[in-house]
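Need a sequence for this fold. Nothing fancy.
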């Protein structure tokens, strides 16, 4: 049996582990819990004070009109103004605006010349992507969502005067920006993203090497940590810079980003750090550059590695919770969930993005299964207890047992005041010798049915059958009101029922039998007696022995009660004193009474 149970456990554990692996593998590949990861990991920090945003804001638009009507003299003036003092000019100026079409020739040339002379300008271009099937490095066919369909570039003269970076924004499947692209190889040339190119130029201006993070996927992407929410960086109006309100020396050796900072320009996105408010594209570039400078970038964990480790953990958890009690299991589950969150946070700080919901979700499912299984096992256990007690306990007692959450079938007993009744069929042995076996069983079953019904009707507990004898206890295992009198009433019901049965069998077999009944009360040890695999609920002690002796001395149809029983019920019964009766095994006799009548009014009350 143990071997079979062990095999089932092994199979169940293997199934749980395999199913967990599948959930973790595909769950990690999809990263469907990114919203929760955002709230756990994306936290504002000190933004880089050397990153400035010159915003094309509402005040600028009011002063100069819509951007598409501007002469390129305006951005040219900005570049010249920022670079006027060679000792206090910005390290890099990045335009998050695509100047793809020519406007007026003079203005276009002015802007191109100003950028060329400055030598610190990075301009934006844009790739138009479409999904195309192509073979990966292993030769497998797959869809590439970053296939370049065409490029929107600065006009030729400007393109030759600046370094370009593509300004495309990587928006995740849920509509939030939390990834950036490092570079793309297009037509044999490596083109960096706008943020990457600005970062690269800035590092070179500081005499440092630009160290790019590890990337993944066809888009050469990486995750990054935001430092500021919308409005978190130093933002000044382009109009204030052009009209001299802001001193250009403020931007000395800084990274200056020029971009849309007005709602009407439709360059805003939902971001990982601000789910409820949108951030302008130029601010997203500022956050990406900040992350590159601080090394706050991440790669997603390997789905296979994560799925393997997590599935093994869940398999072990499944085995452990089968053997542990529910309270330790509950505490353990809570601890593991907390550890998973802390682990995800720790790995994020190390540059690895790990799902935070998958493992807790599976652990909680396994925990729930364990709770349900335990609940069903408890129901089955109670049903087993009830079925056992139905065989020898009154229905009302069985009902109480089924509702008692603390009741257990365990070895042990207690001292308890009880009444004990023994009843035996007189003349049964002699009669059985002259009848067929099936007739003997029929008679015995009829009598035992009567004794059992009488016991249950009066709230007693059927202790056992011993051949043609029956033993019953009252006031155990649960308290029973007026239990001594109810024991006497049970005997009276047996006597009355026996007369009808005797008449029936006299007609059928020409033979009749009758009961002999003995009742005693007092203290006895009651409880489950036996061993772990076989136990009986019974009572033992002198009180029980005396009741048995009284029954053995009773004549046909006679009910004998001890003096202790008589004193408890004397105002409700009519008796005939029998006198002191010596009992086997006792040095002193017991005064005994024969019950002649149980007063009808008391019978009706019981």
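Here you go.
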């Amino acid at each position: 049996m143990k071997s079979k149970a062990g095999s089932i456990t092994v199979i169940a554990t293997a199934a749980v582990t395999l199913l967990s692996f599948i959930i973790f593998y595909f769950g990690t590949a999809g990263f469907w819990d990114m919203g929760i990861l955002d709230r756990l990991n994306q936290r504002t920090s000190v933004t880089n004070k050397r990153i400035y945003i010159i915003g094309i804001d509402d005040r600028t638009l009011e002063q100069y009109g819509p951007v598409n009507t501007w002469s390129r003299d305006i951005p040219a003036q900005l570049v010249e103004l920022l670079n006027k003092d060679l000792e206090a000019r910005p390290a890099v100026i990045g335009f998050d605006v695509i100047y793809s079409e020519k406007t007026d020739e003079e203005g276009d040339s002015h802007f191109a010349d100003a950028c060329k002379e400055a030598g610190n300008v990075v301009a934006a271009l844009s790739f138009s992507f479409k999904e195309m099937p192509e073979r990966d490095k292993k030769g497998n066919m797959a869809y590439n969502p970053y296939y370049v369909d065409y490029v929107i570039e600065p006009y030729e003269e400007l393109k030759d005067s600046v370094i370009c970076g593509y300004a495309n924004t990587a928006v995740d499947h849920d509509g939030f920006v939390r990834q950036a692209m490092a570079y793309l190889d297009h037509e044999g040339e490596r083109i960096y993203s706008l943020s990457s190119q600005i970062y690269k130029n800035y590092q070179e201006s500081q005499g440092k090497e630009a160290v790019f993070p590890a990337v993944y996927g066809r888009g050469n992407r990486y995750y990054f940590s935001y430092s500021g929410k919308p409005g978190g960086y130093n933002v000044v109006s382009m109009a204030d810079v052009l009209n001299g309100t802001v001193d250009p020396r403020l931007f000395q050796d800084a990274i200056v980003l020029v971009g849309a900072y007005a709602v009407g320009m439709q360059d805003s996105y939902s971001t990982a750090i601000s789910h409820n408010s949108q951030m302008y594209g130029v601010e997203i570039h500022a956050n990406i550059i900040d992350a590159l400078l601080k090394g706050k970038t991440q790669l997603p964990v390997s789905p296979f590695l994560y799925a393997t480790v997590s599935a093994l953990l869940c398999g072990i958890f499944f085995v452990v919770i089968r053997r542990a009690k529910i309270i330790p299991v509950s505490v353990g589950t809570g601890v593991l969930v907390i550890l998973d969150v802390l682990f995800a946070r720790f790995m994020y700080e190390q540059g690895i993005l790990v799902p935070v919901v998958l493992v807790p979700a599976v652990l909680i499912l396994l925990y729930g299964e364990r709770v349900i299984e335990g609940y069903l096992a408890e129901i089955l256990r109670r049903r087993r207890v009830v079925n056992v007690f139905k065989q020898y306990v009154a229905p009302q007692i069985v009902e109480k047992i089924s509702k008692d959450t603390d009741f257990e079938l365990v070895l042990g007993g207690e001292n308890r005041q009880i009444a004990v009744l023994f009843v035996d069929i007189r003349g049964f042995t002699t009669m059985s010798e002259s009848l067929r076996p099936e007739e003997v069983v029929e008679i015995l079953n009829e009598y035992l049915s009567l004794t059992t019904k009488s016991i249950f009707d009066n709230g007693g507990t059927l202790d056992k059958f011993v051949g043609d004898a029956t033993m019953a206890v009252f006031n155990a295992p649960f308290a029973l009101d007026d239990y001594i009198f109810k024991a006497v009433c049970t005997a009276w019901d047996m006597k009355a029922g026996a007369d009808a049965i005797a008449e029936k069998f006299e007609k059928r077999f020409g033979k009749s039998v009758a009961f002999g009944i003995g009742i005693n009360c007092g203290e006895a040890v009651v409880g489950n007696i036996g061993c772990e695999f076989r136990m009986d609920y019974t009572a033992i002690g002198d009180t029980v022995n005396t009741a048995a002796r009284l029954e053995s001395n009773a004549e046909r149809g006679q009910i004998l009660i001890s003096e202790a029983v008589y004193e408890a019920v004397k105002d409700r019964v009519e008796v005939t004193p029998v006198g002191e009766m010596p009992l086997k095994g006792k040095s002193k006799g017991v005064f005994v009474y024969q019950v002649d009548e149980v007063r009808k009014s008391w019978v009706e009350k019981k």
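For context: The longest strand covers residues 514-531.
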